[in-house]
UniProtKB/TrEMBL annotation:
InterPro entries associated with the record: Flavin_Rdtase-like_dom, NADH-dep_flavin_reductase, Split_barrel_FMN-bd
Organism: Gordonia prachuapensis
Name of the molecule in the record: Flavin reductase family protein
Pfam families (alphabetical): Flavin_Reduct
Taxonomic lineage from the root: Bacteria, Bacillati, Actinomycetota, Actinomycetes, Mycobacteriales
Superkingdom of origin organism: Bacteria
Length: 178
């Protein structure tokens, strides 16, 4: 099937509606420009790739204005946002916004911003980029990584934000009630 055929088969709206049923984690990808100004964007496409060598990846729209900055830096940090950071997600995903207003962060070993209050972070150098349709796959080689808090992750599902609750926690809560 060619690209043209698949475009005819699936309306963009239908693609988005169905694929939105696959829940994703909300990750702020951060880097900095040559003047050490922090740069960031939100992705729902972060995933682990390989254990040996240790690699992760995310996908960026070809039209993203943040992508060239990430590629120019050649490094990024993937920050897993916590369930109390929906405001940060909205700010980091907004075009034209000062995405770091009110955001505290520390510099990683690779000079990327590690955001305060996240669940975990992965600090990378870019290993390769692959053009895939209207997106670029950015593959990072992990230099360092850590769990930053015991908070729960922010999730994205059917166009809305939510909080993760483990089944074990629900069971425990129901038992504690009696
Ligand atoms: C929950 C969520 C997930 C997103 N996932 C992606 C993604 O995987 N790839 C992407 O390119 N943009 C994604 N976006 C959009 C970008 O965060 C943001 O809107 C985009 O970076 C703005 O364009 P810019 O890079 O030109 O500033 C997502 C936005 C939200 C709110």
């Amino acid at each position: 099937m060619t690209d043209t055929d698949s475009t005819k088969l699936f309306e963009a709206r239908h693609l988005r509606d169905v694929l939105g049923n696959f829940p994703t984690s909300v990750v702020a990808v951060t880097t900095s420009d040559p003047n050490d100004v922090p740069v960031g964007m939100v992705v729902g496409s972060f995933t682990s790739v390989s254990l040996d060598p240790p690699m992760v990846s995310f996908l960026v729209d070809r039209s993203s204005s943040t992508l060239p900055k990430i590629l120019a830096a050649g490094r990024f940090c993937a920050n897993a946002l916590a369930s109390d950071q929906e405001w940060l997600c909205r700010q980091m995903a907004k075009k034209g916004a000062d995405r770091f207003t009110g955001v505290q962060w520390q510099q990683s070993a690779h000079a990327n911003p590690i955001l305060d209050g996240v669940v975990a972070w992965v600090d990378c150098t870019i290993d390769k980029t692959v053009e895939l349709g209207d997106h670029y796959l950015v593959v990072g080689l992990i230099g360092d990584l850590n769990v930053a808090s015991v908070k729960r992750p922010l999730l994205f599902f059917r166009g809305g934000y939510g909080d993760y609750t483990s089944t074990a926690q629900l069971l425990l809560d129901s038992h504690l009630r009696y």
